[in-house]
Amino acid sequence: MTNGLGGFACGTVAGANTRRYHGFLTASLAPPLERTLLVAKFDIAALYLGRRYDLSANEFAGGAVAPQGFVHLQSFEVRDGIPTWRYAIADALLEMRIFMAPLANTAYLKLELVSASAALAIELKPFVTYRGYHSQARGAANFRIDAGADGFAVRAADSARPYRVAISGGRFTAGGVCYWNFYHREEAERGLDALEDLWMPGCLRGELAAGGRLFVSATAEAAAAADGADVERQVEREARQLAAAAPKSAPAWVRELAVASNQFIVRRGAAADADSGIIAGYPWFGEWGRDAMISLPGLATILGRHEIAAGVLSTYARYVDGGMLPNRLPEGNGACEYNTADATLWLFHALDEHLAAHADRKLEDRLFPVLIGIVKAHVEGTRYSIRVDRGDGLLHAGEPGSQLTWMDAKQGARAFTPRVGKPVEINALWLNALDVMARLAKRRGEESAHRVCRELLNAASAGFRRFWNAEQGCLYDVLDVDGGTAPDASVRPNQLFAVSLPYSVLTNAEQRSIVDICARELLTSYGLRSLRAADPAYLGRYAGDAYHRDAAYHQGTVWSWLLGPFAWAHYRAYGDARAAQAYLAPMALRIGEACLGTVGEILDGDAPHAARGCFAQAWSVAEILRCWIRLEREAAPPARNAR
User: Fold this and answer.
1) Does 387 fall in a domain?
2) 58: domain CATH number?
3) 148 to each of 158, 173, 198, 261, how far by Cα in Å?
4) How does residue 116 score in pLDDT terms, banded at 50, 70 and 90?
5) pLDDT at 641
6) Most distant CA pair in the chain: distance in Å?
7) Burial class, 245, CB count within 10 angstroms (exposed 0-12 / middle 13-18 / buried 19+)
8) Cα–Cα–Cα angle for 257, 263, 265, nearest 5°?
9) Positive or negative CA dihedral for 514, 519, 523, 527?
10) Of 209, 237, 265, at which residue does a domain stop?
11) Quick check: bond before 32 cis, omega within 30?
């Protein structure tokens, strides 16, 4: 669950926190960043007909799992966008839901006694902390706890943001104790420290009759938490509206992705009129220019959320410097990082999609000078030797030690896939950007700009023929590698963008050949491998410590977001929308593999393709959703009015 500020709540169905990122309230103290874990979880017990039923779970160092409340779990579902548990307790049925208030650092836990033959008492133990979400707390906390009748306030330090926990219609009994050595097994799997200590400041207690309900809230806002029932209805209403934005013919899994799309759209600041932004993924990514521009058409434009699309485009365009969009936007007082060759070029595609769906002359007027400046900077040369080669019109990018494409894993000074030279997708994006600019300039009557962009496009289109690898029947991955003249013939999915982007210089026979080799060598049911398995550099498992994970990141690891461009490229090559759409259908089986109701970042290249990496990824959701809806429109175009 997210709050539209960068904050979130997440955990497991069983109730045990298995990651350092799991928590009931991770607040974004400087939206959308400075994410800080405040309330890790609640342990819940029900006292019914003279017996105690522990409903939670924890794993501790040494392997102990206590309690084991999942044995009482009758069912779990995500209903109207809200995770919902039902516990069978003798003849009683207790429902639990967890959700967040939109645009507030406030999380809620709702308990409702669906049926029972007697009253049921509830006991909740809150586990609190105050730490950056990438770290883990060790040692006894020295927090100031201010107890009240129905809850308590926490002040971790004089400079820390205070937060409050309260129960509706219940009471709080103080009695603090530290719990040691919670074990986070997913962190151990990633080769990281896996232990945490948490403070339990006392117990919240309440009582429910059949049909009764109570809410527990945790908030870092200055104002009191809003009524839980009102917030629950708002969250449900927004989820239903998002699901309804998908085509009526959309299956349930596509509607789930429409709901999930909202998880990544954030407000950049506390003010009501703050800019819009996009979180690249949960739990650990912030705002990335590349991810935002790739994701925006699927997260907003395709669902008719044009105001959000315009807001994000305006926001990110303000960070253009030296003709470049940042790779990462700043956190706190930090500076932007501009080490990317493709984020800027994806901006043209995102704007083109927006303008095609929604006439937005005001935004076009505002961005056109910025876009012209970008083209000029790329022609004259900008950071990291990004420049047009006058000899063939293609775009060169990169210097020794740099990693500028989306295949950007790096440890220390080592870039695992540097791709210095003329990468194929960078040049496919460059051609597409020039085409967008030529069309925009012509429509606006900007004759000089139209002529320049058309000349650049003609030269680059002719130069792009150099990418054709006749021996393999596909495109080279990089030309003029490391400043030389040799090409890189590695079979990677980057060549698909030369087919899937709106502007393509390839013949239909060439497009089909590219799609076919990607299908044969790279395609899995849940995404495309980043390198074919027959390559000596292929690594089939993404596992181990940070170094070994990064080494495998783009050397065979499966990326779910690429399934969208593959499906669209297949349609461009073969013209059968239903056949292309069928390549997206297996995602119905994998929604929930890493995080329920959404799509994760990556999977192992080797079967059975275990889910890895970030468990909710913006471009995975966006590209699969965008391409499914576009293919649905192609397969079943709207009926035209009869004349």
Assistant:
1) no
2) 2.70.98
3) 20, 9, 21, 39
4) very high
5) 41
6) 85
7) middle
8) 115
9) positive
10) 237
11) yes
- Round to whole Å and give the CA distance between 397 and 399: 7
Q: DSSP string of 458-471?
A: HHHHHHGGGGEETT
Neighbours of 328 (CB within 10 A): 21
Concatenated DSSP letters of 412-432: TTEESS---BEEHHHHHHHHH
Which pair of structure tokens corresponds to residue 329?
Answer: 């936007």
Spatial distance between the Cα atoms of 176 and 199, rounded to a whole number of angstroms: 7
d(CA 324, CA 287): 16
pLDDT tens by residue, 245-260: 999 999 999 999 999 9
- Is the predicted pLDDT of residue 456 greater than 60, yes or no? yes
**Pick from 375, 507, 525, 479: which is nearest to 435 by CA?**
375
- Taking the alpha carbons of 485, 491, 496, 499 in that order, is the dihedral positive or negative? positive
What is the distance between the alpha carbons of residues 186 and 611, in angstroms, rounded to a whole number?
Answer: 12
pLDDT of residue 331: 72
Say what the pLDDT of residue 69 is. 97
pLDDT digits (tens, 9 = 90+) for 490-500: 999 999 999 99
**207 SS3 class:** strand
Cα dihedral 254, 258, 264, 268 in deg (nearest 10): 170
Q: Is residue 542 part of a domain?
A: yes
Going by pLDDT thresholds of 50, 70 and 90, the confidence category of residue 639 is: low
Residue of 167, 218, 197, 215 lying closest to 27 (CA atoms): 218
Is pLDDT above 60 for 340?
yes
Looking up tokens 């044995």 gives 71
* Residue 178: Cβ within 10 Å count: 12
Q: What CA–CA distance (Å, rounded) separates 211 from 29? A: 37
Report in angstroms the alpha-carbon separations of 270 from 103, 194, 232, 273, 350.
Answer: 8, 33, 22, 9, 26
Instruction: Convert the pLDDT of each residue in 499-512 to its tens digit.
Output: 999 999 999 999 99
Question: Which of the residue ranges 5-19, 115-129, 317-331, 491-505 would you say has the lowest mean pLDDT?
Answer: 317-331
Predicted structure pTM score: 0.94
CB atoms within 10 A of CB 578: 12
Element (H, E) at 568: helix 563-574
Give the integer Cα–Cα distance in Å for 557 and 552. 6
Residue range(s) defining the domain that contains residue 28:
8-237
Domain count, the chain: 2
Q: Helix or strand or coil: residue 432?
A: helix
Contact 290, 403 (CB under 8 A): no
pLDDT reading at 519 higher than 50: yes
Q: Mean pLDDT across the stretch 267-280?
A: 84
Q: What is the residue whose two structure tokens read 């349930």? A: 252
Residue ending a domain, among 182, 214, 237, is 237
CA distance 475 to 485: 16
DSSP H or E run through 121 = strand 120-132
In a domain, 49, yes or no: yes
Predicted pLDDT at 332: 65
Both tokens of 16, joined, read 């045990």
Is the C-alpha dihedral spanning 594, 597, 600, 605 positive or negative?
positive
Tell me, yes or no, whether 95 lies in a domain.
yes
Structure tokens at 59: 């794993």
Strand blocks (E) in 272-345: 275-278, 281-282
Report which DSSP code applies to 271. S
Question: With bands split at pLDDT 50, 70 and 90, how would you rate the model's confidence at 217?
Answer: very high
Three-class DSSP category at 117: coil
Output Rg (C-alpha) for the chain, integer angstroms.
26
Best CA proximity match to 261, nearest among 624, 11, 585, 601: 624
Residue for token digits 């029947």? 473
207 bridge partner residues: 121
